[in-house]
Amino acid sequence: AAGVIQSPRHLIKEKRETATLKCYPIPRHDTVYWYQQGPGQDPQFLISFYEKMQSDKGSIPDRFSAQQFSDYHSELNMSSLELGDSALYFCASSPFLNEQFFGPGTRLTVL
Amino acid sequence: GENVEQHPSTLSVQEGDSAVIKCTYSDSASNYFPWYKQELGKRPQLIIDIRSNVGEKKDQRIAVTLNKTAKHFSLHITETQPEDSAVYFCAADTGRRALTFGSGTRLQVQP
User: Is A90 on the interface with B (CB under 8 A)?
Assistant: First the structure.
């Protein structure tokens, strides 16, 4: 079965640089979510999109933005990167009413 | 917003024993409660979920119970096996398309 695809899987950036993470949801899933997971922490909800419109917003810094495109893939744009942004970034998708399936994650390291 | 508390933070059991992980939530509007298993560096994997109109759900060795009045839900794993060792997260969703996770339980099954 098709799963959520995320790219890149690993990303190394310098402080103050920008990064773009991509997410391709499971086909026919209409909702995409972004989560940030620091070492030893639980996933923290950042933002979600339903049918290409922003659905909900969590603890996403103003330096970050995201969008969902007409083909339902989503991108998380991160600017002015800080050391504290180093984390695993997960994208999840769901077909309806909550059942979220996570992608493999992007490990971002900010040096 | 929603707050989910999870206990214990670590749990060590002998192979074949049962393991129980408990969570409480604060928002009475929450109506969906999934459980995720996460191995080190991997994605959270949905293992079982329960909705607010159901009190108990079972899938082979895994069961989840929900007490809406007390606002708590629990994960029960019977006949534990070494491959059950992982971090388990509970979560709650009010239908806002965003999961609030508990802090996680590191389960170790000793052979």
Answer: yes
Nearest by Cα to A90 from A108, A63, A111: A108
B100: nearest Cα among B21, B42, B25: B25
Condensed to tens digits (0 to 9), the pLDDT of residues A10-25 reads: 999 999 999 999 999 9
3-state secondary structure of B21: strand
Q: Residues of A with CB below 8 A from B95's CB?
A: 97-98
Angstrom distance (rounded) from CA A79 to CA A77:
7
The 10s digit of each residue's pLDDT in A88-97 is: 999 999 986 6
A25 CA to centre of own chain:
11
B53 contacts chain A (CB < 8 A):
no
- Cβ neighbors of B98 (< 8 A, separation 6 or more) are A33, A45, A48, A56, A58
Contact B34 A50 (CB under 8 A): no
DSSP state of A50: E
Cα-Cα-Cα-Cα dihedral sign, residues A102, B58, A96, A54: negative
